Amino acid sequence: MIETIRQQVLPHYGLEGSAAKIAPLGNGHINDTYLVSWDEGNMVLQKLNTDVFKTPWTLVENAGLISQHLGEKEGAEYGLKVVSPKVTAEGELAVDLGEAGFWRAIRYLKHSSSIEVVGNEEQAEQAARAFGHFARALCDFDAAQIGDVIPKFHFLPGRIAALEQAVRDNKAGRLDGCRDWVDFALSQQGLLDELAELEPKLPLRVCHNDTKINNMLFDKRDDSAMAIIDLDTCMKGHLMYDFGDMVRTFTSPEAEDSTNLDRVQVRPAIFAAICRGYLAELGDVMQESERSSLWLGARIMCLMIGIRFLTDHLNGDVYFHVHREGHNLDRAANQFTLYRSLLTQADELKACVGC
Ligand code: GN1
Ligand code: MG
């Protein structure tokens, strides 16, 4: 891959024959990401996964428009840095090399760092405030300009149907090893009724749709929030899912794929910190229906990613990158455990979010 980058991709960025250093970066489950550095500069280079992102030009155009909108506010109105795209020598947002991949580059932020597990309330509140700030800054962005990169991305009925299909197909012959989790997931369909009742009342906004803790960069120098990254799945949607994905990825003291299930649980103090940070930015923007949807969003996101990991396990690990045997099943078990912990602490958590 490194040779493809050097010979076929870098020339499009004016780095022909350069001695640039190319190193893998980050922990994404979908794309391949590299940090390219040379004497006078650096950039983040990504090979987009076109099995997942079937219309990659839509993705780079969406991200371009959003970062342009944020860039116009950077400083005075938008207090975070913007990860703007780097255009090619031909003035394009990406390089499509066919079989050799679809490549795009974005600005690398010096002094930035990311975390995989939230260590304390302060970090959670800062990160939630940053994701809230991002959503707030997009309130006056015309959503009609951007397309759906993945249709029905956060659509629970579709994710349940995909699991049922995977169970019927049992392509990888793994059903016997995970039948209990399948039964558990399918027993939670009561959420669909709540969703059907609430969703028609919710406004559509431009959402980030992947508000994982590692998509918020901290400034290493003072631990402040620096930037929201990964604009790949920015699409029209509901704020409850962005809130829910923060709950999913901030509240557990264990990483998403940890097999230490005894320790996987929602930390109520972190949950409360997310509410404080997010509502400090969006409290006056959100409609009453949105506010009352947050608890549902938290449950849906934890359950839904568990379902997606389990489906991929049954299908033979064709969607998410895996790094060990049974990795997707480990992730599913972890996320279902976190979901259960939400339910166990429902009264306390609902009170926090005012539902
Ligand atoms: C994927 O690759 P990454 O980390 O940006 C996935 C998200 C999941 C997440 C789970 C396009 O995001 O939806 O929540 O993994 N992205 C896509 O960690 O499916
Ligand atoms: Mg992503």
Describe this structure in words.
By secondary structure, the protein is of the alpha+beta class. It folds into two domains: 2-108, 2-Layer Sandwich (Phosphorylase Kinase, domain 1), CATH 3.30.200; 121-352, Aminoglycoside 3'-phosphotransferase, Chain: A, domain 2 (Alpha-Beta Complex). Helices cover 44% and strands 13% of the residues. The protein has helices at residues 2-9, 56-73, 121-137, 156-169, 179-186, 190-198, 239-250, 268-282, 288-315, 327-344, 346-353; strands spanning 21-24, 32-38, 41-48, 85-86, 95-96, 102-107, 112-113, 205-207, 216-219, 225-228, 235-237. Strands 1, 2, 3, 4, 5 and 6 form a six-stranded antiparallel beta sheet that branches. A three-stranded antiparallel beta sheet has the order 7-9-10, covered by helices on one side. Strand 5 and strand 6 (102-107) form a beta hairpin. Helix 6 packs across helix 9 (288-315) and helix 7 packs antiparallel against helix 8. The longest helix is centred in the C-terminal third of the chain and has 28 residues, at 288-315. Magnesium ion (MG) binds next to loops.
Apparent shape: globular
**How many DSSP E strands?**
11
Structural class: alpha+beta
Order of helices and strands: HEEEHEEEEHHHHEEEEHHHHH
The H-level CATH homologous superfamily of the largest domain, spelled out, is: Aminoglycoside phosphotransferase (APH), C-terminal lobe
Number of domains: 2
| Straight-line N-to-C gap | 49 Å
β-strand amount: 5-15%
Bound molecules: 2-acetamido-2-deoxy-1-O-phosphono-alpha-D-glucopyranose, magnesium ion
Q: In the CATH scheme, what's the topology name of the largest domain?
A: Aminoglycoside 3'-phosphotransferase, Chain: A, domain 2
Regions with pLDDT < 50 over 5+ consecutive residues? none
How would you state the average pLDDT, rounded? 96
Helical fraction equals 40-55%
Largest sheet: 6 strands, antiparallel
Named CATH architecture of the largest domain: Alpha-Beta Complex
- CATH class of the largest domain equals Alpha Beta
Please give the count of helices.
11
Backbone CA Rg: 20 Å
